[in-house]
From TrEMBL:
S-adenosyl-L-methionine binds at residues 78, 103, 130, 153. Transmembrane segments: none annotated. It comes from Sphaerochaeta globosa (strain ATCC BAA-1886 / DSM 22777 / Buddy). Catalyzes the formation of N(7)-methylguanine at position 46 (m7G46) in tRNA. This is tRNA (guanine-N(7)-)-methyltransferase.
Length: 245
């Protein structure tokens, strides 16, 4: 019988819902669309067993990376890690970095939490909360070595494009949190969105594009399910890389 998920999450409110801004004029860009989901038994068990060790609750207080990870390795933040397969592989293969993964889709969050917990990936921490709120309230300026944003929702319809994550205000927020020499690495299978990314980041103060246009494929980025779906539709994959002066 399916266990009551509410009883699992009652002491972890940020897993039960994600605060949203009211729709309307002046509404800040959100980094997500809230989705509900049922969890499998192993995912529920992962939340129960591993959240206290690898999960971070939202609060309006800047994180101390040394305290969070227990070391002074540079920190990479991944926004929207989906099911987390690429995140786990990158964290294992590039263990010279610490990783904070942000995802509001509960199934993906719980699945990666299961992987992180069972494999004891001590350089990974997870949050289920809006990335804009986390970066604004919990991440200090000039404290992040890199951002990964792989296959964000392209919102392809004209009337939806205002909901896209990569826009001017968000790009400036990312830039303000990057340390000197830090990077922003994005990938998308939606060509028009890729062009928008290039344009937005090119007009963001403090960022430079070492490749002028799209960057060549990065060998350590794993193929995601979203990418596989794009390739199946014969979409081209475009990658964008900008660095902080």
């Amino acid at each position: 019988m399916q266990e009551n998920q509410g009883t699992i999450f009652q002491d972890i409110p940020e897993l039960e819902w994600v605060e949203t801004k009211e729709e309307g004029q002046g509404r800040p860009i959100k980094s997500y669309v809230l989705r509900g989901a049922y969890l499998r038994t192993y995912q529920l068990e992962a939340v129960r067993r591993y959240y206290s060790s690898y999960g971070i609750a939202f609060r309006k207080q800047e994180l101390d990376w040394q305290q969070v990870f227990g070391n002074d390795k540079p920190v990479i933040i991944e926004i929207g890690f989906g099911m987390g397969t690429a995140t786990a592989r990158i964290a294992k293969e590039r263990s010279q970095y610490n990783y904070l993964g942000l995802e509001v889709f509960i199934s993906g969050f719980a699945k990666l939490l299961h992987t992180v917990g069972t494999e004891q990936l001590e350089n990974v921490r997870l949050m289920r909360f809006d990335a804009v709120e986390v970066l604004t309230n919990m991440v200090a300026p000039l404290s992040v070595a890199g951002f990964h944003i792989f296959f964000p929702d392209p919102w392809p319809k004209k009337r939806q494009q205002k909901r896209r994550l990569i826009q001017g205000d968000f790009a400036r927020l990312l830039s303000s949190r990057l340390s000197s020499g830090g990077y922003i690495y994005c990938a998308t299978d939606w060509e028009e969105y890729a062009d928008q990314m290039l344009d937005v980041f090119s007009h963001t103060e403090g960022l430079v594009n070492p490749y002028e246009g799209f960057c060549p494929p990065i060998s350590w980025r794993d193929t995601t399910k979203f990418e596989q779906k794009g390739l199946a539709k014969q979409h081209s994959i475009n990658e964008v890389w900008f660095e902080k002066r």
